[in-house]
Amino acid sequence: MTSRDWVESGGDATPSDRPDPPSEPPSDLPDEYETIFRTVDDAVFLVGVDGVAPADTYRYRRVNPAYESLTERSASEILNRTPREVFGESLGSDIAAQYRRCVETGETVEYEETLSFPADRRTFETKLTPIRPDGEVTRIVGISRDITERRARERELERNRDLRSKTERLARVGGWELDRRADALRWTDGTRSIFAVDDGYEPTLADAVEFYHPDDRSRIRRLVRRCCEDETPYDVVLRARTAAGDDRWIRSVGEPVSSDRESAVGDATGPGADGTSGTAAVRGAVMDVTERRSRERDRRMFEKAVEQAGHGIVITDPEGTIEYVNPAYAADTGYDRQEAVGLNPRIVKSGKHDDEFYDELWETILAGETWEAEIVNRRKSGELYHVDQTIAPIADDGEITHFVGIESETTDRNLREQRLNVLNRILRHNLRNAMTVVSGHASALRRELDDEELRAHATTIEEWADDLTATGEKVATTRSLFERERDPDAVCDARETLSTVADEFAERYPDAEIAVEAPASLRVSADDRLAVALRELVDNALAHHDRVPPAVTLGATSVGGGAAGWADITVVDTGPGIPGSERAAIEAGEETQVTHGTGIGLWLARWVVAGFGGELSIEDNDPRGTVVRLRLPVPTDEA
Prior knowledge:
alpha+beta, Beta-Lactamase, 22 strands, 26% strand, disordered N terminus
C-alpha cells in the first residue's frame, strides 16, 4: 500500500459508519513513511469528511505524536471525534469552518489559530489539503506547526524596528549601508526622515551624494571611496539640502565591513568573486547636527562676547566660589583669572558697607531674584573704586546652580557728577549772587554818572551781568530737564506743540511773523521737553534776526515709511545764519578750542532730540537763513 493509498483509505479499511475503535488503527504504511509520520516535528492529522450526514461531519482518523504533543491530547481523546468534541463548541466550530472552506473550495487552505492551554497560549500555522479520489473531497490532510516562538521573534523584531525608528526620529539619526557586491545603497527610516524623502525611498549612491552641498560633494565621494578601497573610516560634518528644500548640517560617519567579517556572521555571499577578502560593504550613520551646530556657534559667540565685554563679569557656584572671571573683571580688580578662580568675591570687599548690606544681597539672590546696587570695592592694590553691580542667579530645573555678577566701573562717572554738582552750585548760587551784586552796582553807577560815555559802559556791565545770570539759570534748567527718565510711551501732538510755542513768542515779539505749517494729526514720540527745545530754537532765531520784521516758520511733516516711521519738526528763519564754528560743533557732537558755541540753546535742543531717539541737523535756508531740523520717531502703532 502506498502513502496515497493510506491517505485515501483513512489508514484502514473500516467503513466510516463502523463503531469508534478504542485506539488508533494499525497502519499499512511502509516503514519509512510510518517513521517519518511518527517522528516529524510538525503535527500531522487526517480528517474524514462524511458527506452523507445532514451536515458535513469532520472526524479525526489519524494523528501523529507531534499532534498529540502540541494539542496536549492523546490519540484516544481525538480519533473518530469531531472538532467540537475535541476542542469545545467555540473553538471546534471555528476549526470546522476552516475544514468546510477547504472542502467547498477544493483547494489548499492555510490559516493561523491560537489555542489556550493551562500553562500558556500557543499559535499554530495550519495547512489543509483536500483529497479527492473520485472528484469528491473525502479526506483532508492537515499539517500544523507551532509558530509561537517565531511570532514572538517577529513581534520582537517589529518592536525593535519601531524602537529604532522612533529613536532615530527623536535623535535625528539614521543608518545606511552600501553593499559593494550588489552595488546597492540602503537607508533606514531615520535617514529618510533626515533628508525628508518618502517612506521606502531607496537612492543610488549618486542620488545620495546629490543631497549634499555642491562644494561638499567631491569630499563625501572621496571619503566613501577611501573607505571602500583603503578601509579608512571617516567622521565628517557637511552641508546638505533636504528634499523639502531645507538647508541642514549633517554629520556623516562611515566604516568598512570586510568580507571576512561578513562571512563570520553568516553572510551567504562570503568573500569576493575572486575568493579574496576585501571590503564587502560600508556601513554608517547620519545625524542632523544643525541645531547643535547653531548652539555651538551661539556659545562661541557668547564666550567671545563675554571675554571681550567692557564690563567685568564673574561667575560663582551656589556657595559663592569663583569659577570664572573675564579680562575686564581682572583689569578692574587687579586679580587675574588664575588668582581669582577658587576664591570668594569678598576679595574685593572694601569695608565701606555693613553686614546688613550683604545680608540683603544674599537674601535677594537666594530667592531667585536679581540684586542691583552701587557698591564700593577695593582693588588688589588697595585702591577704592565704584561700580554699578548686578548679581543674578542661574537656575536649572528650578535649582540655582550658579550666580553671575556684572559690574560697570563708575568711579570716573561719580567724580564727574560730583564736579558737575559743585559747578552747578557755583553757577546757580555763587555766580548768580555775584552777578546780582555787579548788576546792582552798575545800575547805581549809571544813574549817578553824568558822562554819557561812562553811562554807556555802566549799561554794558549791567547787560552782561544779566546775560550771565540768565545763562546760569538756563544751565540749571538744562540739568533739571535730564534728571528725569524718559517715558517710552510718551506721545505729543506736533501741531498742538508748535502752535503753543508760536503763541508764546507772538506775545513777546508782536512785530514778528511767526507761522505754523503742520498737519492736523501728526504725533511724535516725545514729551514736554520737546517744547523746551523748540523755545530755545525760536528764541535764538528771533534774538539774532537782522531784518524787520523777523520771520520764523514752525513746521512738521511725516517722512519715511515701512515699519519705522519718522517726523521732521523744523524751525526755519531768514536771519544771518548760525556761525560756522557753532554749527560745526553741534554737527560733530563735541566742542573744541576752534569749534564751539556761544550759548547752550542748540546743545539743549540736540540733547532733547537724542533722548527721544532722534537727531538734529542744520541746513541753509534758501535764499537766506537757517533750517534746524528735528527728526523724531512716531509711535509704532502709527508708523
